[in-house]
Amino acid sequence: MSAITCSHVEKSYGATTVIRDLNLSIEEHEFVVFLGPSGCGKSTLLRMLAGLEDISGGEVSIGGKVVNDLDPGDRGIAMVFQNYALYPHMTIFDNIAFGLKRQKVPMAEIQQRVEAVSKTLGLDPYLGRKPSALSGGQQQRVAIARAMIKTPKVFLFDEPLSNLDAKLRNHMRIEIARLHQSLKTTTVYVTHDQLEAMTLADRIVLLRDGRIEQIGSPAEIYERP
Ligand code: ADP
Ligand code: ADP
């Protein structure tokens, strides 16, 4: 069974259509990259997969269920945003633990899970600090930790590396690839960076003006004779 299905998906803002009759099926454990120029509709489509956006037409299903019919807590989705979207007044521990606290997970279990995730991402020395005391790369790791701790089935990334310098971008790209392998999630990743797409993707979905222009493995898209 496919993990995510888009069937005749449309999105309009007023009179402007930004996603047009889009059909796509993503397999379990696949790493799919939405690639295309700014404004082609990548983020809008990703937000629709997350159920963060009303759909103007068609249907998005996750695990065989229509995403907008599911309770946000039951969707099994975690999303990492370009600007990290951390809570500035909370410590790193509380940022990572936020979702579990809302689900009323017992404190001892929260403690244990935050420590495990922090260790994986090298964040254990910073748990008592506020986000503003961390570098951009560290803040992005906190955003990933906060998503990871929910043990999502589907991991969504919206240009997660755009605000990092080149060296850190390389490093985090490798880390994201490793996490995808070890967590065995289905991952959808938005970028306008061809290198990121080619090195991360099982399949690239090339978007243009709200339509799929091309879809295939990096080799199929970039090494055609
Ligand atoms: P990308 O992620 O590929 O840069 P977006 O999905 O952010 O593209 O945007 C696609 C198009 O939809 C753009 O033309 C953008 O201006 C428009 N758009 C996105 N969000 C809104 C909104 N909330 N209201 C109106 N137009 C929007
Ligand atoms: P991204 O960096 O992901 O492409 P944008 O900078 O395009 O995001 O958009 C940031 C926010 O502004 C989003 O929530 C998007 O919905 C909203 N937005 C984008 N374009 C428009 C628009 N033309 N009118 C209103 N809101 C917009």
Give an account of the 3D structure.
Residues 4-225 form the ABC transporter domain. This is ABC transporter ATP-binding protein. GO terms for molecular function: ATP binding. This protein is of the alpha/beta class and 225 residues long. Helices cover 34% and strands 28% of the residues. It is built from 7 helices and 10 strands. It has a 6-stranded mixed β-sheet with strand order 6-7-8-3-9-10, with helices on both faces. A 4-stranded antiparallel β-sheet has the order 2-1-4-5, covered by helices on one side. The longest helix has 18 residues, at 166-183. It starts with a strand and ends with a helix. The structure holds adenosine-5'-diphosphate (2 copies). Residues 13, 18, 36, 38-44 line the site of one adenosine-5'-diphosphate. One adenosine-5'-diphosphate is lined by residues 13, 18, 36, 38-44.
What portion of the residues fall into strands of 2 or more residues? Answer: 25-35%
**Regions with pLDDT < 50 over 5+ consecutive residues?**
none
Termini, distance in Å?
A: 33 Å
Q: How large is the radius of gyration?
A: 18 Å
Counting helices, strands and paired strands, the structural category is: alpha/beta
Ligands, deduplicated: adenosine-5'-diphosphate
Percent helix among the residues? 25-40%
Count of runs of 4 or more consecutive helical residues: 7
Query: For the residues shown, what is the average pLDDT?
Result: 92
Across the major sheet, the strand order is 6-7-8-3-9-10
Biggest β-sheet description: 6 strands, mixed
